[in-house]
Input
Amino acid sequence: EPEVTQTPSHQVTQMGQEVILRCVPISNHLYFYWYRQILGQKVEFLVSFYNNEISEKSEIFDDQFSVERPDGSNFTLKIRSTKLEDSAMYFCASSDRENDFGPGTRLTVT
Amino acid sequence: AQSVTQLGSHVSVSEGALVLLRCNYSSSVPPYLFWYVQYPNQGLQLLLKYTSAATLVKGINGFEAEFKKSETSFHLTKPSAHMSDAAEYFCAVSKTGGYQKVTFGTGTKLQVIP
Output
């Protein structure tokens, strides 16, 4: 069964550095999403993406975040200048009807 | 706006006992409702979903949930808990029609006591 994949599984970065989290959605899905889960908290929606543009974003998704579909298979989340509070698990999802979630990338900002 | 409230951040049951995890939703439009399970250090796995067909929804691993509009509830149940059910469970809501973001509850950690 097709799955959403994410790389890396764990990323450690220093405060102020840029990070790019990568996702490969399920191939015939058209909608893509990023969610975030800070340790011990609930999963929060960040952004949705359709037809090569952002369709909706939350107030968390500020100017330091960006998303891109650089080619036909990858979907990326970039954080320009990481802060300590960006440490979280980041989940990518793609949607045919319901969201199919990837396994997540744990981002640790030191 | 849509939201879900999960009652009880931690629930403990004995192995073989009934599992009941509570979820109430708030939505100004007919919702889709979901239960996800998250094992430690893993991703989110869909247990079951309500998409306005049958109100009693059966999912994987013996779980089921019933959509009750009058009570705005979507509680998750399993007749007999197994040790392997120990995990965190998230109730979630979206608008109908597919292709929608999902709004999650705060989660309930299920502990199964041998």
Observations:
- Chain A has a mean pLDDT of 94.
- Chain A touches chain B at residues 30-31, 33, 35, 41-45, 48, 50, 56, 91, 93, 95-104 (CB under 8 Å).
